[in-house]
Amino acid sequence: MRELPKELVLPEGFVPAEPPDPPVVPKDAATVILVRDGEPGLEAFLLRRVVGMAFAGGMTVFPGGGVDPRDADASVAWHGPDPAWWAERFGCSPSMARALVCAAVRETFEESGVLLAGPDAGSVVSDARPFHDARQHLVDRKYSFAQFLADNNLVLRADLLRPWANWVTPVEEPRRYDTRFFLAAMPVGQHADGDTTEAEDVAWQLPSEALRDWAEGRRGLLPPTWVTLADLDEHATVASAMAAERAVDKIIPKVVRDGTQVRVVLPGDPAYGVAE
């Protein structure tokens, strides 16, 4: 596990002076790291969340969000590793694994316009713009992702995703998520956009550039995003990242207070064992 830089502190007010007692139960969530091969190398798709949002306002993140109970619908047309395979990787039930994969594909579509689905098991849509209205209906929860796929005769392409990590929000925070991170290559022909009310701007960036922007104060990053970008920076191409064999262990950071600043430490850090 990487050691976080001491300069990576949490935004003011992110952690209350008096943590919830008992701690809040984390909500299940999914995040997708979209990557592509750019001219300078592997690039990741990043969104800067709108300032003032209840969680991670102003922070730079990957597309993602909470699991909708309807994401577990077993009627979804599915191609790729089955829910039992994903359940083994993420340490959860097959039903939850199904919901996580569906949430990952749905949230990616809602927040970036990228659709990891196709007319059949061997193809993926080359242009997701014709589904623009349906995208908004999904955001508004007017119908389920399973219904969207069925109405448009589409197959969810679970084989386009790779398990990457599992982060749980520290117990001191009032909003907690048990988030499974997935990696996915940008489909050929599709376009990732910023057409979401949750983002102020979006960009494709080399991981090293995004980390430099953070170091120079141009981006705010939370620990999972910082670590993910640092891990991605070890891969020169999408193929290399997609082929990486990763052990997906549940990572639960701990909060430490350093004067007026609050930061987190990860397992393996000397401060982790003595943190609250």
From TrEMBL:
UniProt keywords, alphabetically: Hydrolase, Magnesium, Manganese, Metal-binding
GO MF entries: hydrolase activity, acting on acid anhydrides, in phosphorus-containing anhydrides; metal ion binding
Cofactor dependency: Mg(2+); Mn(2+)
Entries under SUPFAM superfamilies matching the protein: Nudix
Entry keyword Hydrolase: yes
rRNA-binding is among the record's keywords: no
Residues of the Nudix hydrolase domain: 26-228
Record InterPro entries: NUDIX_hydrolase-like_dom_sf, NUDIX_hydrolase_dom, NUDT19
Name of the protein in question: Nudix hydrolase domain-containing protein
Species assigned in the record: Actinokineospora alba
